[in-house]
Amino acid sequence: MLEAARPKSGDMPETPEEWNKLLAANEELGYAMYRDQGMNEEEARRVAKMIHGGPSGMLLLKMSMELTE
Asked: Which candidate among 9, 15, 31, 68 keeps its CA 20 to 30 Å from the CA of 37?
């Protein structure tokens, strides 16, 4: 899932499309993690969307990318 979202330009996304693809993969990874921890589907999806998706997820992704440079 994350490998498919890896930007063609390298490790750092450069286009909005690359960022959105990585954001979607990150949200799905969060969902899988919460399901693995025992959350039901609805709750896992809600928490993953809240933390790993949308503006908060984008902020976390960008911060993590800056930390790894």
From this structure: 68
